[in-house]
């Protein structure tokens, strides 16, 4: 293989690894714990408090 193919292989592997790390980080941080609750939360009324 020529150098361009090695470069593209390295870029693809690093991007795949980065995406895997981001998915692992979001699972560890709890981003996917309550995926159903957000659609019900937007229908609830918010209580607006005065800042003054």
Overview of this structure, please?
The chain is an all-alpha fold. The chain has one domain. Helices cover 62% and strands 0% of the residues. It has helices at 3-29, 37-41. The longest helix has 27 residues, at 3-29. 0% of the residues are buried. The mean pLDDT is 88. InterPro entries: Cyt_oxidase_maturation_cbb3. This is Cbb3-type cytochrome oxidase assembly protein CcoS.
Q: Summarize this, please?
A:
The protein is mainly α and 52 residues long. The protein is built from two helices and no strands.
Helix content: 55-70%
Class inferred from helices and paired strands: mainly alpha
Rounded to an integer in angstroms, the radius of gyration calculated over CA atoms is: 21 Å
Calculate the mean pLDDT score and round it.
Answer: 88
Number of helices: 2
Low-confidence stretches are: none
Q: What multimeric state do the chains show?
A: single chain
- What is the strand content? under 5%
Q: How are the secondary structure elements laid out?
A:
Layout: H1 3-29, H2 37-41
